[in-house]
Amino acid sequence: MSSKSSQTQVIVLGAGVIGLTVAHVLSENGRYKIKVVARDTHQDLDSQAFSSPWAGANWSPMGKLSERTYGWEKATFNKLWDMIPSGLVLASPSKIFYEEGADLDGLWYKDLVRDFRVLDSSELSGTQQRGVGFQTVSVCPDHYLPWLAKELQSRGVEFVRHKVASIGEAAALAGPNGVLINATGLGARSLLGLEDKDVYPVRGQTVVIDNPNVRRPMAAGGDVTYIIPRPWPNASGFTTILGGKYQEGNWDTSFSAADAQGILDRCAKLVPAIKDKDTKILKHNVGLRPARKGGPRVEAEWLDIPCETEWITTEEGSAASRPAGKVLVVHAYGFGSAGYQMSWGAAKEVGSLVNSGLNLSNDWPSSTGSTILPGFRAPQAKENAPVSVAQPRNRTIDDEYGDSATGALPVYVKHWVQGAECNGCAISLNTAKLFRGTWHGTATPPNEESIPTITLRFTGVAIYVYNVLANRVPSADFSTDTRLTFTLDGAADGHFEHEATDSTDFVFNHLVYGHSGLANGGHVLVIEAVPGSLIIIQEPSSFLADFSFAIVVVNLLFIIDLLIDLFTDVGARRTVFNNFICMFRSISIYNALHDVSGEFEDRCEFLGLQW
Question: Which end of the chain has fewer surrounding CB within 10 Å, N or C?
C-alpha cells in the first residue's frame, strides 16, 4: 500500500456506472488518490440529465462491435456472475426471439453466456419464429450505483459535486502530475476543449411494474421490446422493467403516454400476464443513452493545457491549481445502451492505460522511431504546419483601466456601477482575487425593459467565459440565482443559469460559455443580465456585478491551442424575487493584433503560474 504522500491524484469526471466502475478498479491499487467529480451522483437517481439511473442494466447481446468490446463484455459478464451471491446481481433464464432465417449457430455470444440453447417450437408462440435461451444477469441501478459509491467511500475515494465545463477546468483539479478520467457520457459532446460531435443521445422509455408472474427476461428484435426483472424487491414484491424505445438523436426527456402504451402492448405479446388486473404500474422512466458514432471511446492521450485557469473552487470549498503543461487524460465514454454490460471490462482497460501512461515521459518522442502504447493517441500535427509557431502574447482589457494597447473599454449599457464606488453593496468581494482588483455592477428588476449589457469587440478564433459565483450571503436576504444570455456576432449563442447553494463560499472560474472554431476576424460578444433581479444595493437604480477582462494574443495563422478566459464574478441569492448578479472577472481571447509578452508574464504572476 502506497503512502498518501506518494499517491498519484486521479480525477474521475462523471459518476455514472462507467465512472464509478473505473474508480473502483483504480482504488484496488493503493498508488492512487481518487476523487470523483460530477454534477450528478448516486444521490441524484431522479435526475434526467443523468443516464445511468434509467438503464435497463441487464446483460443482453447488442451486437459484437469488435474483439475489443467482446473482451469488455466477457469480463463484465464474468464479474457480475461472480457477484450473484451478494444479492446485488440477479441470475435468471432469458429468451431472445429472432426472425426466420437468423443464424442461431453463429451468434457471437453463445460461448459467453451460461446454458445457451436454441428454443424448440413448443417454446415459441404467435409471431415468434426462432429463439434462443440462456442464463443472464441484471442489476438494479437504484441499488447498484449507491453500492458502488459506498464501496468507493470505504476505500477513501472522495466525491465532489461540481459541474465541470471544460477539460482545462478538470485538469486543474488533477494537477500537473495527476490523471484525468473523462467518463462524462453525453457531456463529452459539450465539454469545452473536447466537444466530441460524434456523441449523440438515444432516447429511451420504460415502464416499471410489480407483478410476481413476470420474472423472466425476454427480448424481441425490431421494436426494441424487452422484459427485465429487477434483483431487489420493493415493499410489495419484486419489480420488473418493460421496454422500450430507441430513438437516435432525440433529446426529449418528457413522458409519452403513447410510447408507454406501445411498450405495454408489445411486452404483453411476449408475456400475457402483464395485462393481469393485479399488475401495478409503479413508474415511467425516460432517459438518454450516451451513444457515439464508431462506438465507445476508450483511449489515453497527453493533453496540452495552456495557462488557462488560476484556481478552481468547488461548492465544497476545495481548490486546485496547476501550471501549463501536459496532463494524462484517459477517455471512457460513448457506451450507449451497453454501459453496464461493458463496465468492468472497459474499466480494467482504463486502469491499464493509466498504469502504462504514468510510465511515459510528459514529452512525446519525435515521430521518428516513436512508440505509442495501444489505446494511446499521440498529438496530431497540423497539416502543412509551419516550422516555427508563434508563442502566446497577452494584453489586458480591464473594466476600469481599459485596453492596454488601445485604451478601449468594454461597452456597458444601463445601470452599471464601478465596484469601488458601490457604497452599501450587500456583497463584499476580496479584491485580491479580482484581476487588477476592479469590478462593475448591475442588475434588473423582473419587468425591466432596458436590459443591462456588456459588449466586447475582439479579433480571435475562440472565446470562453468563466464565472465566479456567489451563493448564500449572510448579510442580506435576497436571491443569488444567476442568469445570463450570450449573443455572438448578432446570433443567440447560449445561456447560463446558476441556482445558489447554502454555502457562503464563492465558486471561482466556473465556465459558463464557450465558442471555438471562429473565423479569424472581428467578432462581437454581447452578455446580458436577464430581467428579474432584486436590487441589492442602496440606490434603487444600482445593481451588482464584477467585470475585468484579459486578452491572450497569438498568431492565428499558426494557432495550435485556442483559449479564452472570461472570469465572471456572479453573485446574489434567491428569495421571492429572482436576482441576477453578474460579476465578470476576466476574458482571454487569442488575438493576432498585438505583441505584449510582458503583460502575459504579469498575468501569469497574478495567477501564480510560470511563463
Answer: N
Q: Which domain holds residue 468?
A: 393-607
My answer on whether 169 and 43 are in the same domain is yes
DSSP string for 183-229: --GGGGGT-BTT--TTEEEEEEEEEEEE-TT--S-EEETTTTEEEEE
Residues 149, 145: Cα–Cα separation, whole Å: 6
Q: Do residues 589 and 447 share a domain? A: yes
Q: What total of structural domains would you count in the chain?
A: 2
How does pLDDT run across 40-99, given as a tens digit for each residue? 888 888 787 788 888 888 898 876 678 899 899 999 999 999 999 888 898 888 888 887
CA atoms within 13 A on the CB side of 243: 26
DSSP conformational letter for 354: H
Q: Kindly state whether residues 398 and 357 are assigned to the same domain.
A: no
401 shares a domain with 347? no
Half-sphere exposure of residue 358: CA atoms within 13 angstroms, side-chain side: 16
User: How many CB atoms lie under 10 A from the CB of residue 184?
Assistant: 28
Same domain, 463 and 314: no
What is the CATH number for 20? 3.40.50.720
Instruction: Provide the 8-state DSSP code for 376.
Output: B
The pLDDT of residue 26: 95
pLDDT tens digits for range 182-201: 999 999 998 888 889 999 99
**Catalytic site residues?**
58, 337, 341
Q: Where are the beta strands (DSSP E) in 211-324?
A: 218-220, 225-233, 238-243, 247-248, 280-292, 297-305, 312-313, 319-320
Q: Given strand 325-333, what is the order of strands in its sheet?
A: 158-161, 32-38, 8-13, 179-182, 325-333, 297-305
| CB-based contact 580:498 (threshold 8 Å) | no
Is 282 a domain residue? no
The answer to whether 482 touches 442, Cβ cutoff 8 Å, is no
Has residue 121 been placed in a domain? no
Rg of the chain in Å (alpha carbons): 27
- Cell numbers 494511446 correspond to 376
Same domain, residue pair 403 and 318: no
Boundary of a domain, candidates 363, 380, 407: 363
Answer yes or no: do 455 and 554 share one domain.
Answer: yes
Per-residue confidence (pLDDT) for residue 22, from 0 to 100: 98
